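Hey, quick one: can you model this chain's 3D structure?
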Amino acid sequence: MFVGIYVLLFLLQACLSVDLMYRIEEGKSPDTFVGDIAADTHVMESVPRKDQNRITFSQLQRGATGSNLLFRVSKKTGKLYATQTLDAEAMCNHNTECYRIVDVAVQKGTTPIKILEIKVIIQDINDHHPEFPDKRTDIQFSEGDVTGTKRLIPNAIDRDVGIENSQITYELKKNASDPFVLFVYKSVDGASKLGISLEKKLNREIKDSYVIQVIAKDEGSPPQQSVLDIYISVTDVNDNFPLFTRKVYNVSIKNDPSKTSPVVILKAKDDDAGKNGKLRYYFSSRTSEIAKTHFNLNEITGEIFLHKKFQFGQDLSYKLYVEAIDGGSPPLSSVAMVLVNVINLQNHAPTIDINFVSASTENHVGISENIEVGSFIAYVKVTDLDLGENGEVRCDLYHDKFQLQNLGLKKYQVIVKNSLDREKEDRYDITVTCQDEGSPPLHSKSKFTIQVLDVNDVKPQFSKKTFNFVIHENKQPKVRVGYINVTDPDLGPGGKLTYSLLTNNKHFLPFQISDYGLISTVMSLDHEFQNIYKFQVLVKDNGIPSQNNLVNVMVKVKDENDNAPYFTFPSINPFTLNVVYYPHHTKNITVLRASDGDSRENAFLKYEISRGNDKQLFTINHYTGLFSFSRQVTKHDAGSYELEFAVKDSGNPVLSATTTIFLALTVSNRSSEMLNALNVQTDDKIHLNFLIIIVSVAVSVSVIVTVSVSVCIIRCNDEAGTMRRGEVISSTKQKHLMCSSSFLATSCIDVFVARPTDPDKTRTAQLTELSRVSHLGNELENGHIVTALGIDLQAATDVVYQEIGAASCGKQTGKKATLVVPECHRQMSILSSRTDSIEGWNQGDMAHNGDILGYFIRGPQTF
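Sure thing. Here's the predicted structure for all 863 residues.
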């Protein structure tokens, strides 16, 4: 009865110290469901519904991998499962409750809610049957034995650990006339002692031997059994058991070994005489090995001594099972239990035990750099078995990133105090210090390392906001353009970059980019086709989620002199030109025009007469292409001329083209006769015929002027509208104003005026406005100022204009330019060029500025 109450109180105390208790039968396959922690603790009911999906359950583990764990916890559902097939016999002692304690941390996100201690009882199944040491045993009875004389026989052992499965009942099978009954004696350690008791006196002369059977049957379901055959011979035997004065001894001792003062003295007596009543004392097999190493038992006197001091951390409560055996044959014995409580009077430093939430290697644990502040990292248990103030402990952790929080008596948790950034620091060495309140105080330290694991939280960074590159045209494919310098401090896939090219339009982009950011061409580039490429480079890493960034890239294609100039007038070769020369009129004949597909200096053209001007009668302006007489023409100069003209660009090397003009020159003297007739008139009289002529000419001129101006205005408006619809004329094209005595009154010749429209393209003048010049008669006097469409024009003596390709005349100041028109153009209208700023023009041709400016710019304006 006393033992049952003690066991009940022990079990009740064990149950009260845990939060949950589950049961699982041994032998179940891995992943067998054990229990629903979330449902049984009602933790979800205390959490708002919106946060319930953030509740996680983690089994606290110790060691490197947790491979020896018997159970696992579902992180999301909180359900507990077995990880392997459990064997109660291998895990637990005989005839005891077999269980394991599982610590589970409940967290909301990374914030801890509580730590549960769960007791899992491994229920024994009846998979072993009772076994006797031998299938047969021999015993003896003395014929002088009285009724009730007993003889011990071996008891059966059931290796099951469950109380019911290991509980054995015995049954005697015999003939009805056999004078024996089965005797079962329960010892204090729970084992059964079997004996055969004599019902009546034996008479060896009538029968000297018997054969009976003892059937051992456990209380499992279904029950298991075994049979022991007993052969009884009738002789005299030892029939009295040793008896202790008490079955249980309870003593308390100091942790101070002594060879003179015994812990306790056991006494037992045996009513047998002689050697059958002489006793010896031994520790039974139920006594633990650690207890045997610290206690000595005197076999003869029954004295127990503490001969070895217990070290700090060892258990301070022990059970000693002492067996008293007599000298009979067979010997009889009995067992007494000694409960020893060791009183520790020394002060020991506390012991620190740290378990991590995530998997760890020894004292090294990894956490993500994006872990939230307040997240639970480690669980700290402190053990100090000293008494009084010697066992009171206080722990501290001093760190700017991590904090130690008290969870109760000698329990703490390590949490994140401030946010982490692996790119700034990727490793922290943490020290937990615990100190007791003894005198002097003793302390312990436990160190562990936190490795901050990388998260892809940094996008690629460029060294520039815009990358500008320059490459010459006509290069072979796969020419290097330049590198895109970019960095990403993330590790692993988060720092491995992938490059790609992006363009805002659907045009083909003649570039490619390598895996390390090198831009190269995929084909030969043509400046004349496109001189500037604008696109973007997208750089993204391979992290999860991926980070990316964009940077602008501009590649300028530098012009090479790869296009030879060609004549646009004359457009055929050879060309025939009939010229009638009138004395006292302009010396200008015509304007040769040429074009060049290149730009800048490679498209700045110079004209010359290369052959046929043996009389030096003709000259050509090198820059405007104005072809004129170089001196006074006489009748002796009349005739045919075969002239070869050349046009050259200013590139390196110089490219050129030639054309031939067959010129037929006729010299007339009509102007001289008319002038002589007019000169004989008197100053004070106007001849009637002359008056009629003047009136007729005035009327004709008025009609012609009105019609010509109207036509030119309409054409200018139409062409200006066309230009506004996007027909931009390339700045590299050259147009010339052509004037000659052979082109008379109503001819209109196009003139293109340069106006930059894109601020990014101010370095090359673009031709975006179209004006028209109307050639009408000889009514205007030299130097007369004409205003057309609000723009000032001024007459001059020469053709004035070659549009600038590569050549430049300085820097635009923002003032309005005035174009000077040859005197051969009697009436005209022209649109002035806009005064947008044009900077960065080529300064290499400034030697020709004076010549050019002398033709077409008057006043202080500059470009």
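One thing worth noting: The domain at 461-558 is CATH 2.60.40.60 (Immunoglobulin-like).
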